[in-house]
Amino acid sequence: MSWIAKGIVNRTDHRLSMMLAVLSAGAALLLTLIVLFLIKESWPFLSSRWHSGSWFDWLQYQGWYPQENRFGMAPMLLASLAVTLGALIVALPVGLASAIYLQFYANPKVARTFRLLLTLLAGVPSVVFGLWGLTRIVPLIALWQPPGASLLAAILVLSLMVLPTIALTSAAALASVSGELLHGGIALGMRRKTQILHIMLPAARSNIFGGVLLATARALGETMAVLMVAGNVVQFPAGLFDPVRVLTANIALEMSYAMGDHRASLFASGLLLTAMVWLLSWGSYRVTRNGREAGQYG
Amino acid sequence: MLRIFIRLLLLMYVLASASVVQASGGRLTLTGSSTIAPLILEVAKRFESQHPGVRINVQTGGSSRGINDVRLGLADIGMVSRALKASEKDLSAYLIARDGIGIITHKNNPVRNLTGDQIVGIYSGKIRNWEEVGGSNLPITVINKAEGRSTLELFLQHFSLRNSQINAQVVIGDNQQGIKSVSAIAGAIGYVSIGTAEYEENHGTPIKLISMEGEIPTSENVAKGRYQFSRQLNLVVRNTPVGLAKEFIAFAQSDAVKDIIEAQFFVAP
Amino acid sequence: MVDRLFGWLMSGCAALVVSLLLWVLGDVLIEGVAHFSWSFLFTEPEDSGRSGGIAPILVSTLWILSIALVTALPLGLGVAVWLSEFAAGRRRFSDIARVTLDILAGVPSIVYGLFGNAFFSIYLGLGFSLLSGGLTLALMILPVFVRTCESGLRAVNDEWRRGALALGMARSAAIWHILLPAARPAIGAGLVLGIGRATAETAALVFTSGYVDRMPESPLDSGRALAVHIYDLSMNVTGGDSAAYASALVLVVLIVLLNTLAQSLLEDWFKRRVFVS
Amino acid sequence: MRVRDLEVGYGDKTVLSQVSLDIYKGCITALIGPSGCGKTSFLSTLNRLTDHSDARVAGQILFDGQDLLRDSVDTLGLRRRIGMIFQRPNPFPLSIRRNLELPLKEHGIRDRQVRYRKIEKVLKDVGLWEEVSDRLDASALALSGGQQQRLCIARALVLEPEVLLMDEPCSALDPISSGIVEELILRLRGRYTVVIVTHNLAQARRVANYAGFFWMTERVGKLIEFGLCRHLFEAPRHALTAAYVSGARG
C-alpha cells in the first residue's frame, strides 16, 4: 500500500524521509523519556524501600503518612479502582440504553439533537464537571449524609463525564452493524427487543468494548473532578458515603508541597498509573483480537 | 495564508527564545506558603510601583514547596510560615511577620471554647458529636490539612499528635479551602491561620474563630503574646541575598509595609 | 407488550441522560450569565477573583494553547506522514512507534504534569512558565493528533499516489499538494481533539505553568489557565462560585469557538486547492 | 525501445519471464492476453513504477540507447518522458487547472503564462477544451468518467512525453466515453509512442500497429507472439494466439 523506501530517488524526498524518521524516533523516544524521568525521580523512594526490605509495603495497608515515613498506597489504589468501576457500573447501562434509543427508536431530528448534545458534553472540561459536582451534587448528598464529599459523589460526577463517550461510541458501533442484520431479523419475525439484545449488541460488542475501555482510561486518569468532590481522606472506603482519595488526586494535592522521599513516592505513583494504563491497552488489544477471531467463527 | 502562518510560527519561536535570554533581568519569583502569599502579593505590588521594570511572580504552594523551590533554584525567595528546622540550616530565614493558628467552626455553632484535650479528642475521633463538648446535637465533621502544609505540622506539634492518629472526614489543601469547607458544613471544625480567618470573618464568610483554653485568637492577642499557638512568617533564601532579592527582603521587613501587614490581620515583628 | 416496555425503558434512559446533561449545561449557562458582563473579559481579577475579570487568565490560556499547538502540529503531522508514507520499509520500527503512541494517548494528564515539572520546569530550567505548560500540553495532545492524522492519510485514495508517481512528481510534492489536503477532515478532527484537551486541561498545568493570575509579559512568566482559575475559585475562594461559573461559561464557549475557528481556518487553507470531502 | 529477456517477480514467485520485444517510435503497440498474465507488470517496468512495490526486475530495457533499469537512472526524469494512464481515471482532488499545473510546476516550469498556454493546448488536444474551458477552477472530480480519463491523458501529455503507457484505459468507462477515448488514442498515433494494454480485442485491432500476445504457461506469464497487428490477428503463427484471437472473430 505504501511506497517502499528504496523508491526514494529525489534528494528533497530523501531529506524529508530522514527528517521525518528522526521526528518519529523522537516521538517514540518520548515514552522512554517519560518513563525514564518518572523512574529517575522516584528512584530515591524505590531504592530506599528496596534496601529497607519494605518494598511491597506500599501494597499493604499502613496508611499514607509521608511525614512519618509511611507510604501506603493501597487505599488510594483501591479508591481509584472503586471510583472507576462504580462510574462504569452507573454509566454503562444508561449509556448503552441511550445508544440503543439513538440508533433504533429516535426519529432523525431528535437523534441529531441528541447526538449534538452528547458531542458538546464530551467536550466539556472536567473542571467544569467538578465545579458542578461540588456545588450541586455534594450539598445534595450532605443533606443526607454529611460531609457529602464522598465516593458516591465521585462516582456520580465521573459517570456523567464518561456517559457521552460510552453513548457515542456504542451508537457508532451499533450503526456499523445495523443495516443487513436488522432486515434479517425482521424476516425471521423477531421481536424488536430480541433483535437488539440478541443480535445487534453481540455483533457490535467488540467495538462497544473499545469505547468502554476508552471510558475506563479516562475515568482512571481523571484528576480534578474527583479531587474536587471526593473528600480526599486516605482510607479504604467502607461505604458509598465515605470520603476517599484516588491516586491521581493525591499527586495533584501533594505534589507542590512534597520534598525528598515524599516527592519521589508521588512519582512512583505516577509510574504505577502509567503501568495500569499500559495493562489496560494491552488487555484491550488482546480482547479485541480475540473478539475479532471469535466474530469470524461465531 | 500558509506562508503567513509559518512566519507567525517562526516569530513566536524567536520571541520565546529571546525572552529566555532576557528573563533574568528585573524578575523575582517567590513560592511557598499559602498563608504568606496574599500578604507578599500586596507587598510586591507596592515594591513594583516603586521599582518600575521589576516584575515579581508569587506562587502559592506550601512552606515545604517554598523550601524545595529555593533549594532547586526554581524560586529566588521561599515563603515559609514556620521557623526553619534543623535539617534546613542550609537556608537563611528573614522574619517578616507573626501569625497565630486558630480553631474555626461554622458561624451558627454555639460552642465558644474548647480545651486542648477536647480538640485532641475531636481530632482523634473519640468525640464525634458537638453535644459531648456542650454544643447542639450535630455530628462533627473533622477537617484536616494535606501533608506538607506547615499549618498541619504546627498543629500536630502543638497538640503532640501524629498525623496517623487523626481521624478526618475531609482533607483540604490551602487555608482558603479550609475556610470554604467549614463555611459550607454546619458541623465542621478546622484550623487555619488567624490572619486569614479574621480577614474572611470581616468579609462576611459564615465562620468563627473559637477560643482555646480560654485564650481568644485575635491578631492583637498574638502580638501581645496572649495567644500561645503562634508562628513565624519567614522569607527564605539559599545564601545571603543579593541584588533585587536583598532589596525586596529589606523592603518587606521595613516599616513601609506595616500597614499592609496589619490590613491582612498579621502581626508585624 | 414486552417490546413496548423495552422501548419505553430505552427512551426513559435517554431522557434521563438528556435531562442530566441539560442540568449541567443549564447550570453553567444560568449561573454563568448571572455573573458575566463584557467587562468580565477585559479586566484583571480582584479580591482573589471574587470580583473583577479574567483578562490575564484568558491571555495566559491562549499563550499556553498556542505554544502547545505550534509545537504539536508540525511535529504531529511530520510523524503521521512518516508513519503512513515512509515507514513501510521499516515495519518493526514503525510498529514500535505506533504502540508507543497508543500507550502515550492513554497516560493520565497528571502524569504528563509530573513529567513536565521534572523535565521542563526543573531539568531544562524553564521554571513555572507558560512555556513549560504549553510544551507539556504539546506532548499530551501529540499522540492523539498523530494517530488521527495517520489514519486519515492512510484512508487517502492510493490511486492518487500512483498517479503522482507516474507523472514523475517527487513524493514530498505529492504529500504536500495532494495527500495532506485530501486528509484534511482527519487533520481537522485531530486538531479539534487537541484543542479540546489542551484548553480543558487543569491537572498537568498546576505544577508546570503555575497559579499567577497576573498579565503575562513573556512566555517565561507563570500564568494561570482558565481551567486552573475555575478550580482555584471553586476550591479555595469562599464566595467564588459565581465567578467560577462565569469562567466555566467562558471556557465552554471558548472551546466551541476555537473549534469552529480551527475548522474554518483549515477549510480556508485547503479550499482553493482541493475538492473532496 | 528494446526490451530484452525481461523477468519480473514478486518474492519468490516469478510472474513474467523471457520477454523480448521492440517498441517502435510513433506506433501504437497493443498488448493482449487473459487477466493475470503479467501485462500490467510489464507495463510498470517500462517507467520503473515497479520500484515502488516489492517487485524484482531483471533483464534489459534500452531506451534511447540506455538501459533504463540501471540504478543510476533518474526515475523522476524518466517518468516525465514516459507517461502512464491507469485503468481507473485518477484525477487529483484538485481543480481541473491545478491537476495540469501541478506536474508542470514540479518539472520546473515557473512562468505562469507558459503553463497556461500548455494547459490550453493539451486540453484542446484531448478535446476537453470546449467542454471545460468555462470551469477550469471547478473540481476535477465533478467531471464524468470519460472526461476524467481524458483529463488524465491530458495530464500525462502536458509534460510532452515521448512514450505513453496505457493500462486498459477504457475498461472502466461506458461505451460512449470509451469510444471517445479510443478516437483520442488514434489521434495520438504518429506523434507519440503508445503502449496499450487491453482486453478488448476489437479495440486492439482498430488502434494498434503492432500487437503482442501474453499467455500463462506453467504459472509464469510469457510473450507468446509479437508482430504487426494485422499479422497477429489474421495469420497468427502460434496455435495459442490463434485460439485466443478467434474469440474476436467469432
UniProtKB/TrEMBL annotation, chain A:
Gene3D superfamilies: MetI-like
SUPFAM superfamilies hit by this protein: MetI-like (SSF161098)
Keyword Repeat part of the UniProt annotation: no
Membrane topology (UniProt): Multi-pass membrane protein
Transmembrane segments: 20-39, 76-102, 114-132, 152-175, 196-217, 264-282
Pfam families linked to this entry: BPD_transp_1 (PF00528)
Functional summary from the UniProt entry: Part of the binding-protein-dependent transport system for phosphate; probably responsible for the translocation of the substrate across the membrane.
Protein name: Phosphate transport system permease protein
Organism whose genome encodes this protein: Microbulbifer thermotolerans
From TrEMBL, chain B:
Organism: Microbulbifer thermotolerans
Domain PBP: 24-255
Name of a matching Pfam family: PBP_like_2
CDD domains to which the protein is assigned, alphabetical: PBP2_phosphate_like_1
Annotated protein name in UniProt: ABC transporter substrate-binding protein
Transmembrane segment boundaries: none
InterPro entries in the cross-refs: PBP_domain (IPR024370), Phosphate_ABC_transporter (IPR050811)
